[in-house]
Amino acid sequence: MRHLLLAATAAVIAMPVAVSAQENVTNRIIDEGTNHSQVMPTVQHLTDVIGPRMTNSPAMRVAEKWTADKFSQWGLKNVHKEAFPFGRGWTIERSSVRMTTPRVVQLTAIPIAWTPATQGTLTAPVIVAPIEKERDFAKYRGQLRGKIVLITEPGTGDEPTTPDFKRLSGEDLSKLDQFQQPSYDPAANDRRLKRLDYAKKLDAFLTAEGAVAYATKSYRDGKLVTGEGSLFGVGETGALPGIQIAAEDYRRLARLAKTGAAPTLEIVSDVRFNDSDTNGYNIIAEIPGSDPKAGYVMAGAHLDSWVAADGAADNAAGSAMIMEAARILAATGVRPKRAIRFALWAGEEQGLLGSLAYVQKHLATRGAPNDPVASGGNAYYTWSNRWPVNPQPGYRDLAAYFNIDNGSGKLRGLYAENNPAVVPIFREWLAPFSAMGASTVVMRQTGGTDHVFMQQVGVPGFQFIQDPLDYFPRIHHTSVDTFDHLKAEDMRQGSIVLASVLLSAANADKPLPRKPVPTQPVVTDPYAYSQDDD
Amino acid sequence: MRHLLLAATAAVIAMPVAVSAQENVTNRIIDEGTNHSQVMPTVQHLTDVIGPRMTNSPAMRVAEKWTADKFSQWGLKNVHKEAFPFGRGWTIERSSVRMTTPRVVQLTAIPIAWTPATQGTLTAPVIVAPIEKERDFAKYRGQLRGKIVLITEPGTGDEPTTPDFKRLSGEDLSKLDQFQQPSYDPAANDRRLKRLDYAKKLDAFLTAEGAVAYATKSYRDGKLVTGEGSLFGVGETGALPGIQIAAEDYRRLARLAKTGAAPTLEIVSDVRFNDSDTNGYNIIAEIPGSDPKAGYVMAGAHLDSWVAADGAADNAAGSAMIMEAARILAATGVRPKRAIRFALWAGEEQGLLGSLAYVQKHLATRGAPNDPVASGGNAYYTWSNRWPVNPQPGYRDLAAYFNIDNGSGKLRGLYAENNPAVVPIFREWLAPFSAMGASTVVMRQTGGTDHVFMQQVGVPGFQFIQDPLDYFPRIHHTSVDTFDHLKAEDMRQGSIVLASVLLSAANADKPLPRKPVPTQPVVTDPYAYSQDDD
């Protein structure tokens, strides 16, 4: 109750007129977002009809056009796309992996993203050669010719003792209210870059040794596959076809190879590259503001996905909520003080590359003038560790950014991202949504998605707390990330809360309190250097 | 503690000499079952090397020979197979299902057992026509020509809020200690027979309407498939290829068909029938008894499986524990009073047909002399409702039967199957295994596997309580029923406990107390007739 009372009091004192208008508009938003909701048809089109949207794939091109058209049809303004250099388009046309000796089994497997096709049917024996680092190469030199190389340690079956599907309890929520001190390890980026480089070195090693293909084990049990791959850049494509095999099927191959003759696999990986346009594109749309000097607020979600299913929870759900919030606000005819900008990012799965491009273009650059350019996969790893941060002319125009990328679960509130000054403001904005379960504000900082590079340059970028549902245990990146596992009531609730928060932010008297422009931290933890994960 | 004290007291009073001998032999059994265990190599061979063992398939023939050979190598006596009429052999050579319009998706699907092949690639549009009963046929007459008919209601995604993997707590175990009054519904068998007949009528209807194939939805989410089918009899094979599609893929097809043009599927179902021998075979082996008049005790598990994976938890696990108990007892050189017989059943998945054949041959027949013969699929449904029960000469020879068919989980004790007289005896036998977690005896009656038809004629057939692990939530009959999800420590424990219980039963002064020979029950529940599930 305390938070609600505080919030109500603050609202009455701080901006009674705005709140009164807001009360009306809140009910208009709720009506539009429930009785006239379009969020499920939107997400159904993105997932069932368009399907997986790997950045620069033909389906992503369809999605870019379809979403931009929708924004225009709904009355959004300044609808446009913003290009950034990305890499190759890639799709799966057909794939089949069978074990043919010592017996016939149709396996569950998926081509690894951006690996080349098999050119028909490839048949060869496997060899189990767990290779995790460059230093493992020597162990297998001279043994790989003509083989399909199983490069993952087989391991054993899992024992899932927690439920796959979960909603956050009050206790769960309160655990999230933690200030976390930042940590800084200047060597981490170098280590990560080595890993990135490792994918190329691995392909080169296997190719030089005469291997004919390689296979990894899915990191999830239960026959789920993901098929993530990293060599998406032009000129980066490896020479060997790669497949990811379901854990159960992979381990069977490894056990058979250990107890008898090496099994034979028959692989068909009919995949296609498309290099007609190597730029990725962010889709941008706006509701104009009434005060051109007041800047803008923004919400975004990544439209791109992996390819093992339809990228539903990750992240057609977030994209559709962003689109629906835009539609709702456009339908209500609001004219906020600040403009409200909507972004559908590309290249998120390869390193937040679409939102990074936006940051570099509109908000801030990083590094000294003579630093090498950060681009493609390496941008993600190097960018955080470039100094100084150089604010660009638009740096202060973006008053607040809100990101959605944690599945289709109900919004439960906001992460304050270690910025205590925003907590009372967020509580006020969320107060009307207490009965929808969305009024919690917690201090915790979050990572892994498109607000991160904004936070890292001092722009107030936030994420919503969401009910996790079954996102991380089984949906995230997997072959079951389909429309089936989205929750319509949650998606409608999320669109409503997002629309209202954006409007509150756009009409607030002042822009949100910001953190200082970051400067290079002093390393305080001597143990940061002791980690050996290269 | 009460049970342990009781058991110890009973043991000392009832048969002090036998118990003293038993103590030595228990430690010999434990040594053989831990330090010299063969249960995991055995189950690995059955699953990884031999693979799925559908009754009468070529792999099941290999398994029959391999298990019989093992019994002989281990010194078991009277190793032989017992034939019963079954039906056709069937295997999957290759299968692929793709959606080709409105976009290309490689689906997760499996041919339905005993459906015919597609004869190359079959391409056709789908129609969603949920057909559950004969009376649904009329709705779709005239609409199915040239179509792949999706006959299951699509439904929506699941929300798994309980853990997949579980071990039984003390509280769980005590809940199982319930006497359940038997219920009797003479119309149930007729209704079930109609369902069996329905599979043939459905195929005939779809064929007459010009459909080209049919598809069902897997009853589990998460891309698990099972592929069960029922038309295994000679002369019963349907005309149409049938596939079971993963729930997520099936629902996508249904949604697309609802919101746009019907999607097109491309099906390759390269399956093979084998009619070289239409008999199924149970594998039998023995440790001879010292007293030819004392009869025998028996343990059994079904060796057959479904075909979506390797039939590991269902039921290579049980088969391997039976084999290992036989090996352990043979290795210890025991010469019990009663013979100990081991059975690996076939045809369990099609209606406990192997154990039923054993009952009919060795224990009891049912029905009046002029009743029609129960055979194949109908035997399962009609047999329980045939009167009178006619004990055969061997009826009283079988002193006790123990079945294992609940996955690879540790044995936690025994179900007394509504027979209070055996409870103190079982507690005594299990007392040495309290520290292995296996000393619980509960009253509950269990069903669904190969002790049932023995129980139904009054022969004391029992099942062990087992830790469920992830058997029912995700393993049972599915594409992840592989070696990976078996637990080696549990399998070793189970083999030891089983071997010891069998030896106790074989050496017991008296055969186990039996229930009366069943006579036709009086129907006491008028509501038994109100159920409409035809």
Care to describe what's here?
The structure is a homodimer of 534-residue chains. The first copy, chain A, folds into two domains: 2-87 and 282-507, Zn peptidases (Aminopeptidase), CATH 3.40.630.10; 90-158 and 186-274, Glucose Oxidase, domain 1. The first copy, chain A, is 34% helix and 20% strand. The first copy, chain A, has 15 helices and 18 strands. In chain A, a hairpin with a 3-residue loop joins strand 2 (89-101) and strand 3 (105-107). At the A-B interface, helix 3, strand 2 and helix 8 of A face helix 3, strand 2 and helix 8 of B. Chains A, B: This is Carboxypeptidase Q. Chains A, B: Residues 1-21 form the signal peptide.
Structural class of chain A: alpha/beta
Q: Total domains of chain A, how many?
A: 2
| Most extensive interface between two protein chains, with residue counts | A-B, 55 and 55 residues
Instruction: Describe the largest sheet of chain A.
Output: 8 strands, mixed
CATH architecture group name of the largest domain in chain A: 3-Layer(aba) Sandwich
Looking at CATH, the homologous superfamily of the largest domain in chain A is Zn peptidases
- The CATH top-level class label of the largest domain in chain A: Alpha Beta
Low-confidence stretches of chain A: 1-20, 529-534
Percentage of β-strand residues of chain A: 15-25%
Sequence of strands across the biggest β-sheet of chain A? 1-10-12-11-15-18-16-17
As a percent range, the share of helical residues of chain A equals: 25-40%
By CATH, the topology of the largest domain in chain A is: Aminopeptidase
Radius of gyration of chain A: 24 Å
Care to count the β-strands of chain A? 18
Shape annotation of chain A:
globular
Q: If you average the pLDDT of chain A, what whole number results?
A: 92
